[in-house]
Amino acid sequence: MANDNAGDVDRVWDLMKKIGFAMLVTRDGDKLRARPMSAYLDRDANTIFFLTDARRHKDDEIARHPSVNLSFADAGSQKYVSLTGTAVVSDDRAKIKELFSTPAKAWWDSAEDPNIRVLKVTPDDAEFWDSPGTVISYVKMAAAAVTNTRPDIGENRKVSM
Question: Counting C-beta atoms within 10 Å of the first and last residue's C-beta, which end of the chain has fewer, N or C?
Fold first, then answer.
């Protein structure tokens, strides 16, 4: 059941921005594969961009199965987003130059590298978990265990994007 609350959609974008890195999950035949990626968010375009390398398997996997999952996690502050969407890989050189930054320099010498591709993910829906933090969550869980109640450890919502 999705929630169309604009505030929840904003919260998803805020959490993704704060976390910054996502595990990109693609389908490789019958198996799922995940790898960490640096996310570039464009809220106005309702798009998450990544720079990827044409020599890696994920581009082929996305061409065969464009439905992907992005999992953003900040375990230290107990904030998480799981997003499903549709991915497309392109050789948009202008977008590559626009997105090329310090994280990309760990993988390529320059934005001119012919192996760089843009991965564009258009979100379908998301779910977020936003907790007050590890210590408070553990205290609330311990109290709930003692009182035989369910702990209130933050917000959890499903959101249509």
Answer: N
